[in-house]
Amino acid sequence: MSHTWVGILAAVVGLGVMVFVHEWGHFVVARICGVRVDVFSLGYGNRIFGWKRGATDYRISVFPLGGYVKMAGDNPAEERSGAPDEFLAKSRWRRLFIILAGPFMNFVLAFVLLWGLYKVGVPTPAYMHQPVQVAGVIPKSPAEQAGIKAGDKIVAIDGTKVANWDQALSVPSILPGRQVSIEVQRGGATIPVTETVPQDLADGFNILGCPQQRVQVDSLTRGDPAAKGGLQAGDELVSINGEPLVNRDILMATIKQSGGKPLSIGVRRDAKEFTVSMNPVYSDPGDGGGKRWVIGASFGPGETVRESYSFFKAAAESWGKNVTITKDILSVLGGLFSGRVSIKDLAGPVGIVSVSVQAAKLGFAEYIIFMAFLSVNLGILNLLPIPILDGGHVLMLAIEGSLRRDLSVTVKERFVTVGLVFLLAVFGFVMYYDVVRLLPGH
Q: The whole model's pTM is what?
């Protein structure tokens, strides 16, 4: 099975699990609060088969992507019997707990996924726990323009001391449009450097420079320049255009900026070194990055070490990672409201599948981390005070609580309609830019 189909399957399965766990949270707390659940479905659409236990129809439906819970009396537009086990018959506090249980389970799922991953062990680039020693700088990057050079050691970012690359790349202030101050040690002196993070920031290496990283060919595309030029999977690339090659990001940037001009690449294979020459082609490699100059090769992550933690240390690492993910997502949401982040930069279903393909290529650990990120994302987005989302229901409960009475059915229907139209509009914009990014020239 190709990486693309693996990515699509991984995205569908991952999203399905997240939605199912979200609905399971609503289901469990509804039962605890004494609400009758009429349907608990794995999937959407028509019922294929299932069983009934008590008042609940547990079913498998035709489209197994996520699921849903149908609680008795949860729709204010439907006729109610007035039974005490209906959702709207419960106190506002109990309804609040039921509503919040879905997003809460998404946070729990992300925590458990990363807890298990850190306990079993996660492949980590060897440089992550090394001092922030710059081995090279990406051509034409903000780091190069700001004057960061190979041999520099970064000791602080925006006043935060950084002891290794893991800490440096996790500094939350490295965000599109932000100005970042960096303290660099060079020749025994500390030099202040200021950079403005570009809106199209690819990763922190563009801002900080790159660590030392072995560059090894992972796979080749038949018929493309790399394969025609004689490269093989497993080859180590040691130089490009006569310059030592210290990091794969520098290689990929050099290829992208080549304009199709010939590249001379030094290769080490079986303890022998030789040089190959090739002309990049302007093509879309299918990784979601659009058309650019490429040679038809992918490169491995370099040296990695497997890090596993004790039971409680893994839990602490998972908690820290989830906190970082949450801060990053909230920062993006804040950027949307302030105008610092454009809706064009958001990813919809097509973008999620594209990133899933990349995660599937990188391995199981990257896929789990990406799924944890999506789960936190789903939890936070559901808490936004937008009608039809869980956060919208919380807002409605807060309004009713302040008024000390329930809103009319008409007001609630209009409330939901506005939210639905808003979400459909946002979804349409995101889907449009998702597709546009796949078109030639984008």
A: 0.67
